[in-house]
């Protein structure tokens, strides 16, 4: 028998509208970036295969709508998730302040077996803007928030410049695999 084992992992991306959820996924999966903003409606997924040790992992990454009028996913959507990616924009204070809500919303909807150990990851996106001069949330603040939620891993990213995108999703895959 082959030692290569296939695993399908469900990952859900949450965060305010415009923080760059779709852009991060497009950069990761298609190596493409568009300046144009097109709001996500409902939810859709992309897949990406990667090899982690003896496992052939298929990441099924679900993109969601940050805009409130498009949010109506329901419990069934969240069920069976192996990891949740939270995204905020380091240049938009409100997108950081709403992280508590997204975190809670996920736990309420997905109701994982052990909410305390369920794997989340936080991405602080758009660090490229203005060379970092327009950022309003410091890395320290973000890391404090992560620590307060049980040591959530944190990455600063730029979907535009493809900065830390692969590293962040590799971390997601490993977290999801460990939780599978
Ligand atoms: P919703 O679908 O409404 O929830 O938004 P979203 O989180 O999917 O945001 P989206 O990826 O559509 O990006 C919003 C806007 O920000 C677009 O105009 C992107 O081009 C831009 N953007 C996304 N990521 C980055 C980044 O890392 N740097 C810069 N400069 N712009 C970005
Ligand atoms: Mg989107």
What would you note in describing this structure?
- This protein has 180 residues and is of the alpha/beta class.
- The chain is 31% helix and 26% strand.
- It contains six helices and six strands, in the order βαββαβααβαβα.
- It has helices spanning 21-30, 75-78, 93-97, 99-110, 139-148, 165-179, and strands at residues 5-14, 43-52, 55-64, 83-89, 120-125, 154-156.
- The longest helix has 15 residues, at 165-179.
- It starts with a strand and ends with a helix.
- Bound molecules: guanosine-5'-triphosphate (GTP) and magnesium ion.
- Magnesium ion (MG) binds at residues 21-22, 40, 63.
- This is Ras-related protein Rab7.
- Belongs to the small GTPase superfamily. Rab family.
Helix-strand layout with pairing:
Elements: E1 5-14, H1 21-30, E2 43-52, E3 55-64, H2 75-78, E4 83-89, H3 93-97, H4 99-110, E5 120-125, H5 139-148, E6 154-156, H6 165-179
Parallel strand pairs: 1-3, 1-4, 4-5, 5-6
Antiparallel strand pairs: 2-3
The site of guanosine-5'-triphosphate has 23 residues, from helix 1.
Quick overview of this protein structure:
Belongs to the small GTPase superfamily. Rab family. This is Ras-related protein Rab7. By secondary structure, the chain is an alpha/beta fold.
Count of alpha and pi helical runs:
6
Instruction: Encode the helix/strand succession as letters.
Output: EHEEHEHHEHEH
The largest β sheet comes out as: 6 strands, mixed
- Termini separation: 22 Å
Question: What is the 3D shape?
Answer: globular
What small molecules accompany the polymer chains? Answer: guanosine-5'-triphosphate, magnesium ion
- The helical percent reads 25-40%
> Which strand order do you get reading across the main beta sheet?
2-3-1-4-5-6
């Amino acid at each position: 028998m082959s030692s290569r084992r296939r695993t399908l992992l469900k990952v859900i991306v949450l965060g305010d509208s415009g923080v760059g959820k779709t852009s991060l996924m497009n950069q990761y999966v298609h190596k493409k970036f568009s300046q144009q903003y097109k709001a996500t409606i409902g939810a859709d997924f992309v897949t990406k295969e990667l090899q982690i040790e003896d496992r052939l992992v298929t990441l099924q990454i679900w993109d969601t709508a940050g805009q409130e009028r498009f949010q109506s996913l329901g419990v069934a959507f969240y069920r069976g998730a192996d990891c949740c990616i939270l995204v905020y924009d380091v240049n938009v204070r409100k997108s950081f302040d709403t992280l508590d809500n997204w975190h809670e919303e996920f736990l309420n909807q997905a109701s994982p077996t052990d909410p305390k150990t369920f794997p989340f990851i936080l991405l602080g996106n758009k660090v490229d803007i203005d060379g970092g001069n327009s950022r309003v949330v410091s890395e320290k603040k973000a890391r404090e928030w992560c620590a307060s939620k049980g040591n959530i891993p944190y990455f600063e990213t730029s979907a535009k410049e493809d900065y830390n995108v692969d590293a962040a999703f590799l971390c997601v895959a490993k977290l999801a695999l460990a939780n599978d």
